[in-house]
Each structure stands twice: as C-alpha cells, then as structure tokens.
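User: Can you predict the 3D structure for this chain?
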Amino acid sequence: MQHIEINMFSRLIRNHGFDRKFIKNRVIYLNLVSFIIIFFFMIDTAKGNGQDYFPLQVDNRWVFYLSGWPGYSSREIDDTIRINEKVYYRFCTHETGLNWPFYTYYRLDSLDQVWIKGGPDGEHIVYKLAVPAGTDWYKHFDDLTYHLTLIDTSSVVSTPAGLFVNCYEYQTTIEEIFTDFMEWLAPNVGLVKRESEGIGYILKGAWVNGILYGDTTTTGVEKCVNKSFPQACTLFQNYPNPFNIYTKISYSLAEKNYSHTKLTIYDITGKEVKTIINQIQGAGIYSVIWDGTDNFGREVSSGIFIYELNFKKYRITKKLILTK
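Assistant: Here is the predicted structure, written as structure tokens:
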C-alpha cells in the first residue's frame, strides 16, 4: 500500500509541479480511498464460513423476547439423535404459558445446508449457508409450497443481545396461504431475529460455544431438562380469547410415533374456514398463530368459531371468539 501511494504521489508532482494545496487535497483523497478499501476488505473477511451461522453444539442456548406477544421463548440443543444413519441435533423449546417443551431436529450437511426433520421419512432444507445472496429454492410439504430465498448476506440486526453485522437474511413464503416470514442468522450466534405476521422473536441472550451474548435469564421460561413426553393428547384453550388480531393455539401430542396431524378452524355452522396444520408430527407440545383469515387470506367476520385437532384416534374441539 505504501509503495502504491509513493508512485501516486510522484505522478502528482510530475503532472502538477509543487502546487501544495492541490497535492495535499489529492493525498487526503487517496488516503480516504485506501481506508475505505481496507475497511470493506476487513468487513468481508470478518464473515465466517457457512457453519458459523448455525452453530451446533449440545448445551448451546438462545433466549428470545416475543414481540407482539407477551413472554419469552428459549431454545436449547439438549441431545443428538441418529435417524436413518444421519445425526440430528435436538432443539428443545420452551415458551411462556406452555408446561411442556416441544422438539425439532436439525442437521448440517457437507454443503453447509441445514435440514429439518419433517416426518418419519422426510426432511427439508431450511437454510443454505454457502450460497450467494439471491439464491432461492422450494420445498413441498403436505400440499403446501414453500419458497425460500437468501435475501442478503450483509444485514445488520440490533437486538437486546447486541448489534450483529454480516447477518444472513432469509425470506420464506408459503404460496398457497399468502403467508411469509423473515429470519436473520448472525455469524457465531445463529438465529437472532424472526418476524412473521406481526409476531417477532428477538434475541435477548445466548450461550453459544462457550460464549455469552446478552442475558439468558428469563421470566416464566425454564431450562430444558430432558423431560418425558406429554402423557395425553390435549387441545388447549386459545390465548387471548376473545381476540381481535392474533391468537395462539397450543396442543400436545402424546404418541411417540409420527402420525398425520390436522388443526382446522370452522365457523359456527361447521363450514371450514382455515386449515392451520396439516402435516406429520410426533410427540411434543406445539403452538400456532391464527390471524383471523381464511384459507384464501381474507379476513373473516367477528363471531364464534370452532377449532378442531385430529391426531390418530383423537378428535378434540374447542371454541374461540373473534371480535373486531
């Protein structure tokens, strides 16, 4: 860099003599350009490899503040499990108001692609970590089409846990129900933010690979401790109820074997309004959000609705109230 500046300075002397003011201004300009080049080079090299964006180590823990919904959510890698000769990391999630954890299973392949277990024989790519911005792909699950796109690889995200640069920003669109959500993964930390239909998960703190970020203490959310699975299939009362924007519906599945699960909203006459869940699931606690729209994304009128859970031999119904 110094050799380049000397050559540039010599060229200025030859072309402009000893006009000190001109030369001073040009030297300041060249130094500024050099600083910008070095700065962006440092920013680019600060990006980790793909695996840094989804750190997989038992005991890693993330705590999220729920924006638009009161409470917290915590995720912890509590175990590994081998399924069909592939090793998955089990993520145990607790959320405010739920007495039982629910589990998801992820693995990272040699191409830095993150897969999630979606049933007894299926898995799907949820993140691609070694591709350029603009890369998109599709996954098909239970008659729904998911369009996933890596929007940016240099996003900046501010959370209570800190300011994170060079974040990977993903958009997922479920085409049949006109729903999309955004997610941001930070290097060396993983998921730091998620937004969907007004509900946000914002990182409050994390313990990742032996490093503490922010604050991992929570209120009303406990640490995962390998609890046993729920002993009964249960459909919980939605909360809040009545509601006018969003409501959360939770349910527990007791059977350890995977089976088809369906959660449907009906109006008071028994006409189907919206199918919220229609997929294969196993034992655990699950939660979904209903935003008061039908299968075509249209807002429905105020009234009393029935929501029904179907799982194996179980068929459970409850009522909810939408007010506008």
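Residues 1-10, 35-47 have pLDDT under 50 and may be disordered. DSSP finds two helices and 20 strands in the chain.
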